[in-house]
Amino acid sequence: MSTYGIDLGTTYSCIARLDSNGNPEVIRNNEDDSNTVASVVFFENENNVIVGQAAKENIETDGDRVVQFVKREIGKRDTRTYEFDGKTYTPVEISALILTRLKNLVESQGGTIEDVVITVPAYFGLEERSATKQAGELAGLHVLSLINEPTAAALSYCARQFQEDRTVLVYDLGGGTFDVTVLKMSMTQNNSGRDVQKITVLATDGDDRLGGKDWDDKLYNHILHACCDDNGLTPEEIEAETRQDIRSKVEESKRKLSKKQSAKVRIDVNGSRTEVVIKRTDFEQMTSDLVAKTMGYIDKTLDKVPAEAIDTVLLVGGSTYMPMIINAVEEKFPGKVQQHDPDQAVAKGAAIYASMLVEEVGSLTAQGDETSGGEVAQAEQLTSKFTVEDQTPRSFGPGVVDMNGAKHKYVLENFIKIGEKMPAVFTKTYYPLEDNQELVRLRAFENMSTDDTLIPCVDEDGNPQATDPAHNVKLLGELIVNLPPNTSRDTPIKVTFKVDASGVHVEAVNTKTNETFETFLRTESDIDVAGSAVHQLRISAD
Ligand code: ADP
Ligand code: MG
Questions:
Q1: From the CA of 348, how far away is ligand 1's center (Å)?
Q2: 239, 381, 386, 391: which has the highest count of C-beta atoms within 10 A?
Q3: Does the C-beta of 179 come closer than 6 Å to ligand 1?
Q4: Does the pLDDT value for residue 378 go beyond 50?
């Protein structure tokens, strides 16, 4: 089959498909002898760009030619770019290089890759999502859909254990991010009357600056100080080469400590060889504040969903290999914790979802020989058990003028609120601000608030106001609604927003002429805000 699931991670990425028995399997990265590919890009020279472990090894020596953590930049406003050898790269292009490496992995092992599902964090907004999709397309992939990482993880777990209604907490500790998500998995019937498992997100929280890297940093400092003590040096006296030597051995030592009670590292300290032994108990002690921090986020989430309601806790992300994590979570949720291949679960879930979508559109039909027919039948058996009901990642609505009160205010009316079931649709009628208005600049906004109205979240030019960063208001785009001559200010204009997994659809109907204007907002658009203070709609007829 040529359908794949991709976990495009902040620090490591992974690609999976369903095997001939319909079970998810990861495509191994033989070059790095790993199931994952480091999401690190090294621009060695004009002609050579390296992705993966070999790129990672250049962080210390050639840091200014290495790009990592690009997922933190993707789809962000005023995004940074990277320049190497006279060429400029956007975060989308860097991400495409990582995706291309995953694609090559499949092809180098004789596979073909066509349709893919790429995973994104549950908290990603519309722009981060479309930028991720764009990166996939740039890498020559056909992106069937995106799926939230915790949802994918849950899909991969229920491929092992098919259970009835459950509330699942996904604890995902990766290399640079921590996410906690509570999902409800319930039995429902699909259109053909078959029992299927439905997955919905109940709550999500986390920290995009907390992950395995913080454990690495603590270990680095510990080794550095041990080297100082052994050689009677101060940290300032440690040479740059020694620091690099320590840095390059930290992650490996951390991984060893997940398996063994102690790890030994040999460091060349300013020319003299020093052996440092790290005890797991010491490592656990020096990082206990980090573990506690993740527990704090769990507690915050449990304000929304009570602990008693949680049936299962899934440990996802490479950092959950650390026994200290397993123990801490087990202590909080005794007997409820599960962990299987935590660094692959997200990609495997995406592979299941990808097959499910292909089946839905009916292209998964038996073609060619007997074997492929059998393969299809089994894959169908697995995938037809699931349906995913995703929710809107943000709130969406138009900017309109509120005429109540002494001063007219430009406000954002939230049509569709964060967490609503997709596809979500909402319609409301507005009126032109003035008689003979020739057009309306109907603005669509995204935000993180669940309020009906945000005041004042945008200024009269439609720019999100800096005074309201908590709600993360973003202008997504603008629909120009042309009005015929002599339009009165009492003309009802019906505005509809529809949000689904692929984006936001905005429609405006002039109910006098029945003229319809519509636009599909997928990506950031350049909007000329000039003249916007007049060309608006107002909330109520007077
Ligand atoms: P991402 O951050 O991209 O989601 P992963 O979920 O694969 O990536 O997590 C990567 C993190 O997991 C890294 O910090 C890595 O060092 C850590 N990690 C991987 N395997 C182990 C292990 N056996 N023990 C401890 N940490 C590990
Ligand atoms: Mg991850």
A1: 16
A2: 386
A3: no
A4: no
